[in-house]
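From the shared-data thread, chain only:
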Amino acid sequence: MTKISEILEYNKNFVENKEYETYIADKFPAKKLAIVTCMDTRLVELLPRAMNLRNGDAKIIKNAGAIISQPFGSVMRSVLVAIYELGAEQVIVVGHTGCGMASINADRMIASMHERGIHPEVFNTLENSGIKLKRFLRGFSSEKEGVIHTVEIIKNHPLLPPHLPVHGMLIDSTTGELELVVDGSEQD
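Structure, as tokens:
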């Protein structure tokens, strides 16, 4: 059985047994939070539990490293939608210990792309189009640095409402312990 077949079979039973009823929530975040966090598998259940979040409490936006690399990219757009369309009143950026983006190696990743069949001409075309792959694939030197960087991008975004709190936290990816890195309530 393929992974997709397993998922669909499970889902059929999930719906038939009305297990979804436990998760029924409004599209508006009950705790009025937008959270930008990492896609790390260790955080799927740990982060909501460690933050006392239930289904429907927050808009959780995930990507590699909880990093906003483009101020006008999809992650920032999601933050703005959460604020202006869905009623979020605070943003929390949550990085985590042991994040792979702190040790990402662009050269190694590009080599892996070559090995998995991406033709060298693709890399040349991208570079000639002004896309600097090594910069695009760059991580950060520390998890705290990554959180602070993303908080700054959000906080200084020209479309962010003035005085909206933007916090930064680091979660221990084993214990769930939270460390406040940036207290957004102390912003100008």
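DSSP finds seven helices and five strands in the chain.
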